[in-house]
Design a protein that fits this description.
The structure holds two protein chains of two kinds. By secondary structure, chain A is of the alpha/beta class. In chain A, α5 (154-165) runs parallel beside α17, α6 crosses α14 and α12 packs across α13. The radius of gyration of chain A is 27 Å and the shape is globular. By secondary structure, chain B is mainly α. Chain B contains nine helices and one strand. Classes of the chains: A alpha/beta, B mainly alpha. β1 of chain A pairs antiparallel with β1 of chain B.
Chain lengths: 766, 182
């Protein structure tokens, strides 16, 4: 009796000979301990960390199919030779036993969310998707498929593929759920992006005012290094936050502002600088327009008025404004990333930029430097039918008009900015208005932990004709998909170059440390293979990714092989206004060519040309405003299955003011359910009873509260802020979703009966 | 031992046309019968499960499951309680010394049950090494996960084979005179 061979293994020629003569292999070999990895031949490859979106340049130490260690390297302006613990822990994801391993197709007849799948080959999975896409195109048009993505590889799926396919409905959470207000405001004020690597000259600044800033809690490597340098160099720090944050703990002054009143404070500071003639007059005269309108506009916003709104004493408001002025132009209010707070956020950010401008700090040492993107040409392809519409950390896309023959993006007209808002593309999936979206690609984004109103998202998914998830882990939303495509992890793949706008613009290379494990594939390969099947082959003319990258590198006088030995290519920039003035130019791409304190463009579009204050929605009786933020250990909802990080922080906790806790009968360490204004319940979550937060708000870190049993470590730990965000307020300028208009009450809860992370790691074999 | 290896490889590889052929033709059932006879074991009666159902169950048991993967099909999980542990490294050393390497078409880890099964079969000329693979690498997995399969396998196909292989290896173990080193 003999069964046919399956051919999973092969014998080497030498071994075949050995076997054929019956040579016995000694049994001692099985008991021999494998040598330690560092005693073997270790190779190092240049990589880019993917455990947060600072994306440090790293070197991976590799033996065979295993990365044992990652480090920063000095030549990379992101890491500067240093790497945070979160980055050090990132390789654990590649070897996570819960990883997606094979393409999966949902069992015919099963419901989305049931999670019933069968393994498929890549050919079968891609053919299945292509057939569905072409059917949707025939029935509803190319625009009926939306593309969502987040991560370094998202460009293939959110920019390139939809533009080639012909769908303007491509979006990233990093825009309308994060940076949109600050970026749109920057465009209307400076005519330039802020960008993913915030262009702050930290080491030379002398006075820093942080408003709701994540620094110290988002662990953006270089930013923390430079913030530390600033403190070491004597910079004073003021933190404005309803919560005594990590940054507040390092500050000279903490201003516990009433949530939602930041614009009032900013306007009052502007008032003081102008009324006391403390602003940089020469700078204003030379580089700005609209000062006369600003002077008239700002008169009512006195510190005494602001005290009524913010609950910060007028005298303190005055004093801080004067201190800022004393240190100008080396005083700065750095914009934070996540700026979608209350729905009027673009105007708040405009107020912040106007205040910065009065301090004369734009394009000057100790203030904002002028970041430039590195020069690098695209790979030559035929003209794509559409321009990518999704934008990114550096702001909105440049799409103003759609070419003929395509419908406009499905959220057009809801807000002013020329980019998509991911949360606004859910509604057409539910209602079919203004036209139906019937297909969705989700690349690397956690739909249920990023987009507000989870019940609506689930309803939308249930109505789709095609839902494809491209991911690394079996997250809850992934297990709703019709087809699941397992992507190779960052350590196993090339991606397109990461280009960083910076004081010294630079290009970073990610190359695979080893072959993809299991039957996973890199995103570039998936996009190209799918493209071939849906008639887009002409837009993917490269033979392979090496040829693609090499061609791009040739445009800057290098080749891929040389780049492999460098990791990062640094170019020259023009960070200061003086650099531009030497060339008789200015960097401001506004209508006036100057910094626009008064925005004629906003006025023409029917919005306030100067920021006005709008009071936040009142906190309902018995509720607290739900504030949320970042953990230095985790990144969004992406890292809660990482054993190293989960051993450091396995759950979030809810911060509750100590007096409120006493009033409600809570003790430190008690557990509570959080119940929002719409009755959605999260938890149990442990209470952190503290003086470090105001009485009218509670706070949790984002990313916990997973409901994915396929992720053994992440599942069921803590509470999700996203699930509690059933409402949002649309910013009519940027498209941002203001998320801080959600409120929760607390109910006592039993402590959850969970196994320890250490035990789970042992049981699941992490 | 060779037949035990082939059965393991055939049963625990992703269920495709080859398995369907083995089932329809009765080859797999006959192989089990031969093994049972040789070891004086009852012949397991494989259920008549359609291929598409086997594929769904295989995926939920061994590949991906929203409720948590019950039986990761890697022997290292039983040896080390983790992937890529010392047992995994020892297995690779053993493969290397035996002149075995995974085929480029094999898109999974080398300590997958199906690969280990095939390795056992391929080492026909090195019975001691084949026995080592079977007893020290395959058996720990079967011992740990057969009870799980009996709970989670709605078809009983995988649990029946796993139970039979466990019983067969226990007979082998009782027959072997070599001390167990791991």
């Amino acid at each position: 009796m003999k069964l046919p061979r399956r051919n999973f293994l092969k014998l080497s020629a030498a071994a075949v000979g050995a076997v054929s003569v019956g040579g016995a292999v000694t049994l001692t070999s099985r008991a021999k301990a494998a040598p330690a990895w560092y005693t073997k031949e270790v190779t190092q490859v240049f990589q880019i960390c993917e455990n947060c979106f600072w994306r440090c340049g790293i070197k991976a130490s590799v033996v065979g199919n295993r990365v044992y260690k990652v480090d920063g390297y000095k030549e990379n302006p992101k890491s500067r030779g240093m790497l945070c613990p979160r980055g050090q822990a990132a390789p654990a994801q590649t070897y996570d036993p819960d990883r997606l391993k094979k393409p999966l197709i949902r069992i015919e007849g099963s419901q989305r969310g049931d999670g019933r799948y069968r393994e498929a080959s890549w050919e079968e999975a891609l053919d299945y998707i292509a057939k569905k896409m072409l059917g949707l195109k025939e029935q509803y048009g190319t625009e009926s498929i939306a593309f969502f993505g987040h991560g370094t590889g998202d460009g293939w799926f959110v920019d390139f593929l939809p533009a080639a396919w012909g769908s303007p409905n491509a979006a990233k959470p990093s825009v309308s759920l994060c940076t949109a207000p600050r970026e749109v405001a920057a465009q209307y004020t400076f005519g330039r992006a802020i960008g993913g690597h915030e262009p702050i000259d930290w080491p030379n600044t002398k006075y820093i005012v942080l408003i709701g800033h994540h620094i110290g809690e988002d662990t953006h490597n270089t930013q923390l290094q430079e913030f530390s340098e600033a403190r070491k160099n004597g910079a004073r720090v003021v933190v404005v936050d309803p919560r005594f944050s990590t940054a507040a703990a390092k500050a000279d002054r903490w201003l516990p502002i009433k949530p939602g009143t930041d614009t009032a404070l900013l306007l009052a500071w502007i008032h003081v600088l102008i009324s006391e003639n403390l602003y940089d007059q020469a700078f204003i005269e030379k580089y700005t327009v609209g000062m006369d309108q600003l002077v008239a506009h700002i008169k009512p916003y006195t510190p005494e008025w602001a005290e009524q709104q913010t609950e910060i004493p007028a005298q303190v408001i005055r004093q801080v404004a004067r201190e800022m002025a004393q240190h100008k132009p080396k005083a700065i209010l750095p914009p934070t990333r996540h700026t979608v707070w209350y729905g009027n956020d673009t105007q708040r950010m405009r107020a912040s930029y106007i205040l910065n401008t009065l301090l004369g700090n734009y394009g000057r040492e100790g203030g904002f430097y002028i970041a430039m993107a590195p020069y690098l040409e695209k790979y030559p392809t035929p003209q794509l039918p559409l321009e990518p519409a999704a934008g990114g950390c550096a702001g909105p896309a440049a799409v103003v008009t759609e070419p003929e023959g395509f419908k406009p993006r499905a959220d057009k007209g809801k807000f002013l900015a020329n980019t998509t808002a991911i949360q606004e593309l859910i509604e057409p999936m539910v209602s079919g208005q203004p036209y139906p979206i019937k297909g969705l690609f989700a690349y690397g984004i956690n739909l249920f932990h990023a987009i507000p109103n989870v019940p609506r998202t689930k309803e939308a998914l249930s109505k789709l004709d095609l839902y494809v998830a491209i991911d690394v882990l079996p997250q809850e939303h992934v297990m709703w998909a019709d087809v699941i495509l397992p992507e190779a992890t960052y350590l196993e793949r090339y991606d397109d170059f990461v280009t960083v706008a910076h004081k010294t613009p630079f290009i970073q290379l990610r190359m695979p440390a080893h072959e993809p494990l299991y039957d996973s594939k890199p995103g570039w390969w998936i996009a190209k293979e799918l493209g071939k099947r849906i008639g887009l082959e002409q837009f993917f003319p490269w033979q392979n990714i090496e040829e693609y990258l090499d061609t791009r590198m040739q445009s800057v006088g290098l080749d891929l092989e040389t780049m492999k030995s460098m990791g990062t290519m640094v170019q020259s920039g023009k960070p200061w206004l003086t650099d531009w003035e030497k060339e008789n130019s200015l960097p401001f791409n506004t209508l006036s060519g100057k910094i626009e304190l008064y925005s004629e463009a906003l006025a023409k579009a029917g919005f306030d040309p100067l920021p006005k204050y709008e009071a936040p929605q009142a906190v309902p009786e018995g509720f607290y405003r739900l504030l949320y933020g970042r953990s230095p250990v985790h990144t969004f909802a992406r890292t809660q299955n990482n054993p190293v990080l989960m051993e450091m922080e396995s759950s979030n906790s809810v911060w509750l003011n100590a007096e409120e806790a006493a009033r409600l009968g809570f003790k430190p360490g008690d557990h509570a359910y959080l119940i929002n204004q719409d009755g959605v319940r999260e938890g149990p979550v442990r209470l952190k009873v503290t003086q470090r937060i105001r009485k009218d708000a509670v706070y949790i870190t984002h990313g916990f509260g997973h409901k994915a049993k396929g992720m053994a470590l992440a599942d069921g730990r803590g509470a999700s802020d996203s699930y509690l965000q059933t409402r949002y307020t649309l910013d009519r300028i940027s498209g941002g979703a203001g998320l801080r208009n959600n409120f929760v009450k607390l109910e006592k809860a039993p402590a959850p009966k969970l196994k320890s992370v250490t035990q789970l790691i042992k049981e699941r074999g992490a | 031992m060779q037949l035990l290896g082939w059965v393991t490889a055939a049963a625990f590889a992703p269920p495709k046309a080859a398995l369907e052929h083995d089932l329809v033709s009765g080859t797999l059932q006959a192989a089990l019968a031969e093994m049972a006879k040789a070891r004086d074991l009852p012949i397991p009666d494989l259920p008549q499960t359609p291929l598409n159902e086997l594929q769904a169950v295989y995926t939920s048991l061994f590949v991906s499951n929203p409720a948590g993967l019950p039986c990761p099909p890697y022997v290292g999980m039983a040896l080390d309680e983790r992937l890529f542990g010392d047992g995994f490294d020892r297995l690779l050393e053993l493969y290397r010394e035996a002149g075995l390497e995974t085929s480029p078409d094999w898109r999974d880890l080398p300590d997958h049950l199906a690969a280990v099964g095939e390795a056992i079969a391929l080492l026909e000329a090195k019975p001691a090494l084949a026995r080592t693979l079977a007893l020290d690498y395959l058996y720990p997995w079967l011992k740990r996960y057969t009870p799980v399969l009996q709970e989670a396998d709605s078809t009983s196909f995988y649990s029946a084979i796993a139970l039979f292989l466990s019983q067969a290896l226990e007979v082998v173990q009782s027959e072997t005179t070599a001390p167990q080193l791991s």
